[in-house]
Design brief:
24% of the residues lie in helices and 40% in strands. A seven-stranded antiparallel beta sheet has the order 1-2-5-6-7-10-11. The chain has a two-stranded antiparallel ribbon with strand order 3-4. A two-stranded antiparallel sheet has the order 8-9. The chain has one domain (2-144): FomD barrel-like fold (Beta Barrel), CATH 2.40.380.10. It has 148 residues and is an alpha+beta fold. The model has no long low-confidence stretch (mean pLDDT 94).
Length: 148
């Protein structure tokens, strides 16, 4: 990912077509077929991935602990498994991986405040995506246009 900049919503990183990602416990590796930008809000319990077509989802938000930047080239957070996504075509919004979130609460002993923040973030994100509230409407496109 490439540092694009910051605005009132947080820090934006970009990924050009062909960026290699690792996904899942088995670390399935794949190359992107679309440009992407990722938003790391300064205080939010989430991150947001915005994708161009041909990706089926235009926005995928991970509920996470707040992002921390130990130094400019490194961001850390804990993925809490509860995710919110918006489908490109019909713009339907759904909260996903609730089963994983429930399972990991037990397995990892999430404190009650972490569970509360994660649920609150999922509900807020769901509403923001449905209503196309910024940065989930047009703002991300400004950053996406900067990805080569």
């Amino acid at each position: 990912m490439v540092w694009l900049g910051e605005d009132e919503y947080g820090v934006w990183l970009g990924s050009p077509i062909g960026t290699i990602y690792g996904k899942g416990e088995e670390c399935e590796v794949y190359a992107t077929q679309e440009r992407r930008v990722t938003l790391f809000p300064r205080d939010g319990w989430w991150t947001a991935l915005f994708q161009e077509a041909p990706a089926r989802l235009d926005v995928y938000c991970d509920d996470t602990t707040p992002s921390e930047w130990p130094h400019p080239g490194e961001v850390t957070m804990v993925d809490l498994d509860l995710d919110v996504c918006r489908t490109r075509g019909d713009r339907s919004v759904s909260i996903v991986d609730e089963d994983e979130f429930a399972s990991h609460q037990e397995a990892y002993g999430y404190p009650s405040h972490v569970i509360s923040h994660a649920r609150s973030a999922a509900e807020s994100l769901s509403a923001a995506l449905r209503e196309s509230v910024e940065p989930f409407n047009a703002r991300f496109r400004v950053w996406l246009a900067q990805v080569s």
